[in-house]
Specification:
The protein is 30% helix and 25% strand. By secondary structure, the chain is an alpha+beta fold. Strand 6 and strand 7 (120-126) form a beta hairpin. The structure holds nickel (II) ion.
Length: 172
């Protein structure tokens, strides 16, 4: 297992629509586990393959709380097939470190995806897991959470992001 490099906004790989996974082989399994390790180390609750520079429809999610057992979800070619309700929670993203904003989402979603054995699975998610599913599937379509902000908030984000980046460069 190894930690992968996380690509930051505005890396062009984050804007690309990712390609469907067609080969369910050992490389895919390795990538999924490396992504999970990278997510836990960050730490984060979700990570999509484009964030590690790989434009494929694969994401990992684990929204279990610290005192719970890990609940790793590995989603390949995920699709939202149903959604209900509204939610507006503060989100962050490992590709946009140190920036957080409220995003309008559905409160619950039904997601169809394939697992590492190419088996189709359907889950119904609520709460933080529902938000993470929508956030990660957005990544596979080249959409970041900041793309959901109003034009005013986005321009404020760009200004703030410049400062965050300067700050990160100083630390290196
Ligand atoms: Ni993200």
């Amino acid at each position: 297992m190894s930690l992968l490099k996380i690509h930051h906004y505005p890396d062009p790989v984050l804007k690309k629509v990712a390609a469907p996974v067609t080969e369910f082989d050992e490389d895919l399994r390795q990538l999924a586990y490396d992504m999970a390790e990278t997510m836990y180390a960050a730490p984060g609750v979700g990570l999509a393959a484009p964030q590690v520079g790989i434009s494929k429809r694969l994401a990992v999610i684990d929204c279990s709380s610290r005192d719970e057992e890990a609940q790793l979800l590995i989603m390949i070619n995920p699709e939202i097939i149903d959604s209900e309700g509204e939610s507006c929670e503060e989100e962050g993203c490992l590709s946009v470190p140190e920036y957080y904003a409220k995003v309008d989402r559905s409160a619950s979603v039904k997601v169809r995806f394939q697992d590492l054995d190419e088996k189709t699975r359907i889950i119904e998610a609520q709460g933080l897991t529902a938000i993470a599913c929508q956030h990660e599937i957005d990544h596979l379509d080249g959409i970041l959470f900041v793309d959901h902000l109003s034009p005013l908030k986005r321009s404020l984000f760009r200004k703030k992001w410049k400062k965050i980046q300067e700050h990160m460069t100083e630390q290196m």
